[in-house]
């Protein structure tokens, strides 16, 4: 009966309207480098670049902020892309032998958050085509497409096949022009008898149109034959009888010669003369890295230059025995010869050069190389051919990403200092060339605030990215390896400088690119990051228990780093660390470049991976946790304030470490069976000699008698003996009420894997209105920070604690350090009672402070069958009312869906499907912003950006720089992200309707019928205070119904 009284019937139309103005789910843009790229194209007229991937995606890039994305219906690899220059159209060839036509069009108006928005330009799939099989041939391999050539007139597509035939398809209708079909037999008839020898010419490897005579094309066959074919007369003008297996062809600008590259690592120059019908030998043939056997030159470009000799660019050709495993691209001009040495495979490359027909020379200005793991752009106008920094498409995974952190509303001063530090790092490159892929126009308004995305990496670096707009631009890179002695401590050799290569070795290698997947030491990996944007203090914590406090400095500094060791085991017996050793700190002074420079190194013992950190710069405190316990350190006074061990006697796995291989299968099986046995007992054997043990016994008895409600799942309590139960999952600093309801002061909260929450009252000299200040007096400067255990909470089901947040008297989150003191945020309400919001993997619960009595909760696992993975408190602004906003709890579950709740009432608002439940790494990598956006990894090199806010969206808003057609609303989605389909195009930007299961208002808020009581131990109250608290609790029980429903 009690529960039925608080069931809300029906929906509130006004509330539904507000929810639509606050919440809307959109996947907006993908940041980073496309995963597994497979094709590359460039439109010289529109200055746009396209990249195709093995998953069937096509991404078009122009100036920073100009992006369009399309997705083929089938997840088949894109093998080739060709722009129709200046038209905003492109052709794609898939691995399944289909040719697809795409077009940039203007999408229809759309509605987001109750407001109508103009449609953006999107990439629409128009049509597709497959070559018909040849009659009488069962296998379709003869018509398998090997190469495409789009004629300059853009009305005809030449299609080379594996069977040696060349077919011609009319554009844009994609219809086969059968009268023009050129089969291999027709070419063979005109060959000299001695060249035929009964052998097949092989597949068509290359098609190139004559640069000066439209309608004439070079056809290169795998066997080595090259034919200059006239489409008008359907006759071979000239035959070039090559004898080496052909890889690629390229015309010289005037059309007087062409260059062929071959399988033996050589290239040949062939003159084109009108009087000679058959050429037996090239004018010259060179194997640049011979005489020993070399790998094939896969592609070659010949660009004429006004300054002298032509620029020759080719990929491959390395000596097989010594450098056959290198991924290289060579640039040659006169005596200049550089072999660019990459760390991943070369997919394709092109040059940006003069395309006007009246110009005599190509004069290439830039080389763009698409690699398997990154994009590299070379400045060909500057001596030394330096690399250009990329404003987008930077490889996020240059070293594997291990953690991330988002900072919103970055102060202008900090932003400027970070940019200057980044410029100092890039000053060696000596190039002033602007980004050459500059097509389209970014129509998005400038960002209202600057946003930072920080990524921690396996090699011990932290990278700072400009996440304010569509283009994720690298700003600054921080390295932490120089704090320790590593295997790479030798002074750098200046000859290894990528822009000052002077070695005499052959080939003349030069390391290019920043993708480096190999870490010098896996212990350097960054696990946690915390940045205070107001004081410019940064804390990074790593895999070997290292916690480094860094401060921003604009000048080069040569200093030593203070080292403090914190033993989290506290001399506990019976535990022996079997994992990796700690990193050896560098004790001598070392030079640190401008930027964030290390001040203090705190080394946890045992050196286990750090699982949680918290930074409070106003109090000069850092808190850190591992699988063994947590510590508190005063980095101003350089002393340890607290070290607390959270290990259970059976936490043997916690002593092995993530890099240890000593896990026993027998031990795992034994623990699994032990868990099964304990789950059947329902916890009656626990006998804890605490004042609350009688309450627990009553709860256990009632739990056995209670019938579980139909909408809930029964959740069995977890065993206290589970391995890794002592892992510290979250840490939180707060100025709140812990001792009593009248004195507030600094506190530290810690949550563990076993559902334990520890609350410490901190006495920070000169801070707080409680007893710490009363005892400060004149000796404030000499006193140290003290920590006193105030509360210890044990959640009933022992579910891991994911997040702890303190809410002020108005139910709003407390501001960050310095925000209130510097009037950067509204001061928290200290007149009314505070509360603590504890999110475990199974439920969300709000407790009142300082008594820690339950106010309200939502049992997510019982209702939805999912577990909480990530939690954030987000401020949502209304899209319709400028002055209306709500603080909301956002929760990501192990099923990949987002649940939004009001605080502190924990009323469910909406639910969105965001990440596939199979994408475990995506769920684990998700990070939220404070304004309702988020990021998660969709591949090792790409972040998907999404928005839960109807008002705040960061999405592409751009035009391609050419006339585009308008599209019917039924045919397209927004933001340039479309999926090919013969009927409709489904957009990945979806808005989940508000009538999802959790948005329904007819929902039982299971708060009044709660029979489980957490084990709360209060270490600060006296006997009198305990009696008063007990009396107050009884009084609250009498009026609890009115409190709980609000």
From TrEMBL:
GO cellular component terms attached to this protein's record: cortical actin cytoskeleton; plasma membrane
Family annotation (PROSITE patterns): WD_REPEATS_1, WD_REPEATS_2
Any one GO BP annotation for this protein: Golgi to plasma membrane transport
Name of the featured protein: Lethal giant larvae homologue 2 domain-containing protein
GO molecular function, one term: GTPase activator activity
Classification via InterPro entries: Lethal2_giant, LLGL2, WD40/YVTN_repeat-like_dom_sf, WD40_repeat_CS, WD40_repeat_dom_sf, WD40_rpt
Family: Belongs to the WD repeat L(2)GL family.
UniProt-listed SMART domains: WD40
Keywords: Exocytosis, Repeat, WD repeat
Residue ranges of domain Lethal giant larvae homologue in the record: 286-386
Coiled coil spans: none
WD repeats: 71-104, 452-466
Keyword Repeat assigned: yes
């Amino acid at each position: 009966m009690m529960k039925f009284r608080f069931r809300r019937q029906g929906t509130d139309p006004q509330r539904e309207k507000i929810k639509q103005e606050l919440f809307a789910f959109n996947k907006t843009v993908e940041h980073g480098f496309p995963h597994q790229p497979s094709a590359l194209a460039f439109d010289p007229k529109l200055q746009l670049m396209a990249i195709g991937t093995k998953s069937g995606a096509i991404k078009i890039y122009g100036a920073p902020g100009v992006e369009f994305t399309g997705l083929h219906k089938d997840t088949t690899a894109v093998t080739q892309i060709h722009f129709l220059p200046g038209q905003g159209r492109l052709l794609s060839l898939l691995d399944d032998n289909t040719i697809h036509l795409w077009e940039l069009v203007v999408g229809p108006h759309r509605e987001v958050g109750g407001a109508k928005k103009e449609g953006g330009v999107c990439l629409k799939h128009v049509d597709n085509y497959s070559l018909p099989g040849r009659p009488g041939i069962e296998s379709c391999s003869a018509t398998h497409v090997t190469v495409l050539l789009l004629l300059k007139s853009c009305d005809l597509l030449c299609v080379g096949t594996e069977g040696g035939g060349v077919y011609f398809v009319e554009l844009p209708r994609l219809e086969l022009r059968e009268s023009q079909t050129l089969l291999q037999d027709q070419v063979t008839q005109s060959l000299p008898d001695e060249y035929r020898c009964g052998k097949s010419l092989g597949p068509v490897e290359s098609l190139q149109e004559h640069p000066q005579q439209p309608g004439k094309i070079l056809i290169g066959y795998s066997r080595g034959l090259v034919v200059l074919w006239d489409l008008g007369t359907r006759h071979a003008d000239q035959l070039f009888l090559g004898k080496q297996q052909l890889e690629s062809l390229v015309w010289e600008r005037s059309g007087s010669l062409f260059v062929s590259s071959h399988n033996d690592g050589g290239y040949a120059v062939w003159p084109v003369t009108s009087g000679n019908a058959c050429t037996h030998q090239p004018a010259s043939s060179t194997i640049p890295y011979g005489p020993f056997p070399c790998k094939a030159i896969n592609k070659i470009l010949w660009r004429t230059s006004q300054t002298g000799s032509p620029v020759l660019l080719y990929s491959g050709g390395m000596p097989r025995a010594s450098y056959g495993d290198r991924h290289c691209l060579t640039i040659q001009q006169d005596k200049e010869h550089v072999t660019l040495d990459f760390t991943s495979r070369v997919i394709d490359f092109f040059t940006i050069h003069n395309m006007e027909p009246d110009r005599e020379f190509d004069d290439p200005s830039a080389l763009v190389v698409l690699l398997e793991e990154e994009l590299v752009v070379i400045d060909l106008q500057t001596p030394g051919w330096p690399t250009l920094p990329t404003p987008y498409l930077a490889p996020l995974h240059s070293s594997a990403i291990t953690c991330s952190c988002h900072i919103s509303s970055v102060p202008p001063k900090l932003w400027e200092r970070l940019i200057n530090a980044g410029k100092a790092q890039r000053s060696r490159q000596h190039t002033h060339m602007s980004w050459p892929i500059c097509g389209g126009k970014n129509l998005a308004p400038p960002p209202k605030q600057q946003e930072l995305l920080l990524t921690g990496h396996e090699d011990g670096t932290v990278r700072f990215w400009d996440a304010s707009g569509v283009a994720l631009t690298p700003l600054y890179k921080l390295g932490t390896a120089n704090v320790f002695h590593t295997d790479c401590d030798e002074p750098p050799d200046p000859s290894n400088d990528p822009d000052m290569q002077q070695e005499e070795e052959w080939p003349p290698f030069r390391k290019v690119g920043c993708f480096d997947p190999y870490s010098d030491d896996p212990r350097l990996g960054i696990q946690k990051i915390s940045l205070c944007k107001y004081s410019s203090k940064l804390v990074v914590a790593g895999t070997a228990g290292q916690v480094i406090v860094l401060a921003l400095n604009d000048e080069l500094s040569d200093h030593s780093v203070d080292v403090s060791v914190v033993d989290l085991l506290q001399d506990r017996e019976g535990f022996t660390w079997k994992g990796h050793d700690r990193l050896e700190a560098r004790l001598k002074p070392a030079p640190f470049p401008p930027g964030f420079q290390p001040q203090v190194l705190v080394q946890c013992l045992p050196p286990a991976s750090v699982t949680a950190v918290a930074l409070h710069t106003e109090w000069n405190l850092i808190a850190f946790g591992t699988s063994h316990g947590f510590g508190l350190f005063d980095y101003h006074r350089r002393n340890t304030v607290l070290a607390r061990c959270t290990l259970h006697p059976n936490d043997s796995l916690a002593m092995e470490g993530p890099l240890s291989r000593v896990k026993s299968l027998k031990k795992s099986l034994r623990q699994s069976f032990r868990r099964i046995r304990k789950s059947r007992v329902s916890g009656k054997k626990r006998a804890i000699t605490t004042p609350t043990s009688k309450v627990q016994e009553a709860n256990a008895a009632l739990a056995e008698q209670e019938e579980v409600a139909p909408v809930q799942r029964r959740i069995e309590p977890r065993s206290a003996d589970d391995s890794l139960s002592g892992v510290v999952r979250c840490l939180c600093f707060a100025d709140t009420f812990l001792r009593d309801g009248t004195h507030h002061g600094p506190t530290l909260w810690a949550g563990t894997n076993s559902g334990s929450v520890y609350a410490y009252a901190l006495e920070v000299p000169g801070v707080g209105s409680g007893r710490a200040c009363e005892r400060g007096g004149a000796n404030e400067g000499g006193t140290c920070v003290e920590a006193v255990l105030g509360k210890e909470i044990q959640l009933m089901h022992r579910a891991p604690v994911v997040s702890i947040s303190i809410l002020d008297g108005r139910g709003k989150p407390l501001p960050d350090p310095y925000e209130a003191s510097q009037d950067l945020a509204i001061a928290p309400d200290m007149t009314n009672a505070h509360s603590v919001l504890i999110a475990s993997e199974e439920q969300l619960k709000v407790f009142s402070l300082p008594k820690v009595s339950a106010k309200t909760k939502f049992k997510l696992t019982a209702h939805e069958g999912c577990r909480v993975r990530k939690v954030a408190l987000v401020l949502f602004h209304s899209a319709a009312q400028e002055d209306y906003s709500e603080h909301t709890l956002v929760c990501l579950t192990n099923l990949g869906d987002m649940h939004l709740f009001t605080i502190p009432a924990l009323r469910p608002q909406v639910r969105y499907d965001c990440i596939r439940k199979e994408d475990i790494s995506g769920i684990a990598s998700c990070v939220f912003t404070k304004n309702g956006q988020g990021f998660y990894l969709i591949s090792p090199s790409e972040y998907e950006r999404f928005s839960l806010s109807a008002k705040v969206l960061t999405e592409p808003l751009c035009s391609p720089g050419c006339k585009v057609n308008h599209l019917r609303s039924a045919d397209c989605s927004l933001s340039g992200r479309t999926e090919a389909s013969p009927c409709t195009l489904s957009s990945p930007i979806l808005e989940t309707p508000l009538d999802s299961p959790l948005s329904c208002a007819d929902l039982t808020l299971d708060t009044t019928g709660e029979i489980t009581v957490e084990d709360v131990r209060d270490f600060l109250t006296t006997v009198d205070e305990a009696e008063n608290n007990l009396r107050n609790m009884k009084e609250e029980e009498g009026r609890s119904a009115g409190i709980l429903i609000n």
